[in-house]
UniProtKB/TrEMBL annotation:
Keywords: Coiled coil. Residues 91-118 form a coiled coil. CDD domains: RhoGEF. GO terms for cellular component: plasma membrane. GO terms for molecular function: guanyl-nucleotide exchange factor activity. GO terms for biological process: positive regulation of cell migration. It comes from Collichthys lucidus. This is Rho guanine nucleotide exchange factor 39.
C-alpha cells in the first residue's frame, strides 16, 4: 500500500490559501484517505492565536489538487508551556523550586513515618507472641530459637528508638543514631536462609511448635500474616530505607544541618542493601549447584565446591576427532570449569532421569574461538583449547552459539573475584597416562594426544551442512 508522506512543504491548491504548509500530510492513495497533522507548542499567552491558525486548515483541505479523496482527517497536536514570571535574578523561580523540594520532602517524610509505625508494630508481634512466649514455654530449644529469630529482638529495640525520632521530625538525628546499630541487621541478613530452613524443619518435625504457630497466627492482631512473611520484614525494610533516604537527601538543601546526616545514612544503608543482594546471589547460586548435583548420578562427580559459580548449561554437539557423527552432549559451565555429561539409559531402574558426568575441563589457561558462525548463518562451531585437550562444539542455533561464546569468553577473561576451588583436590580425579579407563559417572580431566587431533576440513563441512 502506497503511503506518500509530506512534511514542511507547500501544498498546491486551486484557490489561494494562506495556511497551505501543514507540518505532516499522510496520503493513502488506495484507500483515498489523507491525514493532515499540525503540531504547535505555543506559550500560554499565544495559545488562542495558535488555535486561530489551526482553523485556517479547514479552508486548505478541500482546495488541494492532488488530494481528491473521499475522506480527509485533520489532527492538531497542541502543547503549551508556562514560563511564569521571574523576579530579579530569578528569585521567584528559585523560591518555587525550594517549595517543590519541601513538598516532596514532606510527602517522603510522612510516608516514612507511617511505614515505620507499621513495621514496628509487626516486629512487636514477632517478639511478643513468638520469641518471648517460646522462651517462657520452652517449646523450642535455645539454639533452635536463636537460629529462627536471630537478632530480631535487638532490631525491634533499635527501631523503637528510631521511630521516636522520626515521629518528632528528627530524621537526620534518628538515622545518625540508627546506623551504628546496623550490625544487628547484618547478623539477621546473614542468617535469614538458615532461619527459613530451620523453621521448615521444625514445622515438619515438631508437632507442638506447629500447633503453637497456628494458634498465634490466628490472633486478630496478625491480620492473616504468617510467621514466614513477618521474618522477611527486616530484609525488605532495608531496601525501603535506602529509597526513603535517597529521596529525603535529594530534596534536602545542602545548607540544611540534616543533609550530612542523611547522606551518611544513605551510604551506611546501601552497604547493608548490597550485602543482602550478595547473599541472595550466593543463595541462588547454591540452589543451582544443588540442582545440577541432583541431576548427576552417583557421588563421584562433585559439583558443590567452595567458590564455584554456576553460569549456564545446554546441549551442544561434540565433533569427534576422526570424522564420526557428532553426538549431542550436555554441558554445564561454571566459573572454574566446563563439565561434560551424557544422559543415562532411560531403561535404568534408578538413574533413568539422570546424567553421567564424563569430563571436567578447567577454564584456567583455556582459549575459545569461533571456527564458523561469525555471520548470520545457521549455527556454527566453537573451538576450545585446553593445556592438554581440545574440543570442537557445534550448534545449529546461531543465537545459542553466540551466547555460549560470550559466556565462555567472559568466564575465561574475567574470573569471579572470589577464591577459586582447588582443581587438583581429590574431588576431581586426574588420571595419568597409565591410569585405567574412566568408568561411567566418574569425573576426570582429559589427557593424552587423542583429543588434540582435529577433524579434517571435509568432515567439518559435512557436519556444518547437517
Amino acid at each position: 500500500m502506497s503511503k506518500p508522506r509530506y512534511h514542511g512543504i507547500q501544498i498546491q491548491t486551486d484557490k489561494l490559501v494562506m495556511a497551505n504548509q501543514p507540518d505532516i500530510v499522510l496520503v493513502d492513495k488506495q484507500q483515498k484517505k489523507a491525514v493532515v497533522i499540525d503540531v504547535a507548542i505555543p506559550g500560554d499567552r499565544n495559545i488562542r492565536e495558535e488555535h486561530e491558525k489551526i482553523k485556517k486548515y479547514s479552508d486548505f483541505l478541500p482546495q488541494s489538487r492532488h488530494m481528491n479523496h473521499n475522506r480527509v482527517l485533520l489532527i492538531t497536536v497542541t502543547m503549551s508551556f508556562s514560563p511564569g514570571p521571574s523576579g530579579p535574578l530569578g528569585l521567584t523561580t528559585i523560591q518555587e523550586q525550594r517549595e517543590r523540594w519541601e513538598r516532596k520532602r514532606s510527602r517522603t517524610a510522612k510516608e516514612l513515618v507511617q511505614t515505620e509505625q507499621r513495621y514496628s508494630q509487626q516486629l512487636e508481634l514477632v517478639t511478643t507472641y513468638f520469641v518471648e512466649i517460646l522462651k517462657a514455654k520452652g517449646t523450642l530449644k535455645q539454639d533452635i530459637r536463636e537460629s529462627i529469630f536471630s537478632s530480631i529482638k535487638a532490631i525491634h529495640s533499635v527501631n523503637q528508638s528510631l521511630l521516636v525520632h522520626l515521629e518528632n521530625g528528627y530524621f537526620g538525628r534518628g538515622f545518625d543514631q540508627f546506623c551504628p546499630q546496623l550490625h544487628n541487621y547484618n547478623t539477621y541478613v546473614d542468617n535469614i536462609y538458615n532461619a527459613s530452613k530451620v523453621l521448615r524443619i521444625q514445622l515438619k518435625k515438631n508437632k507442638a511448635f506447629r500447633r503453637f504457630k497456628e494458634v498465634q497466627e490466628a490472633r486478630p492482631e496478625f491480620n492473616n500474616h504468617r510467621l514466614e512473611d513477618l521474618l522477611q520484614l527486616p530484609i525488605q525494610r532495608i531496601d525501603q530505607y535506602k529509597h526513603f533516604l535517597q529521596d529525603l537527601t535529594a530534596n534536602t538543601s545542602p545548607d540544611n544541618p540534616e543533609f550530612q546526616q542523611l547522606s551518611r545514612a544513605v551510604t551506611a544503608v546501601c552497604v547493608v542493601s548490597q550485602r543482602i543482594h550478595n547473599n541472595t546471589q550466593c543463595h541462588e547460586n547454591y540452589l543451582q549447584l544443588c540442582r545440577v548435583q541432583k541431576l548427576l548420578k552417583g557421588r563421584k562427580t562433585k559439583v558443590l565446591a567452595a567458590g564455584r559459580w554456576y553460569i549456564r548449561e545446554g546441549w551442544l554437539k561434540m565433533v569427534p576427532p576422526k570424522g564420526a557423527d557428532a553426538k549431542p552432549k550436555l554441558f554445564f559451565l561454571f566459573s572454574d570449569m566446563l563439565l561434560q555429561a551424557k544422559r543415562c539409559s532411560l531403561l535404568h531402574p534408578i538413574n533413568g532421569d539422570k546424567f553421567a558426568g564424563q569430563h571436567a575441563y578447567p577454564l584456567q589457561d583455556c582459549a575459545v574461538e569461533k571456527v564458523f558462525g561469525h555471520t548470520k548463518s545457521q549455527g556454527g562451531l566453537l573451538s576450545l583449547t585446553f593445556p592438554k585437550a581440545k574440543l570442537l562444539l557445534m550448534s545449529s542455533n546461531q543465537e545459542d552459539l553466540n551466547d555460549w561464546y560470550e559466556s565462555l569468553s567472559s568466564a575465561i577473561r574475567q574470573p569471579l573475584s572470589i577464591d577459586q576451588p582447588d582443581l587438583s583436590s581429590s574431588t576431581l580425579r586426574l588420571p595419568g597416562p597409565s591410569s585405567p579407563e574412566v568408568g561411567p559417572g566418574q569425573l576426570c580431566y582429559v589427557e593424552g594426544p587423542a583429543m588434540l587431533r582435529a577433524p579434517s576440513l571435509a568432515c567439518l563441512a559435512r557436519l556444518i551442512s547437517l
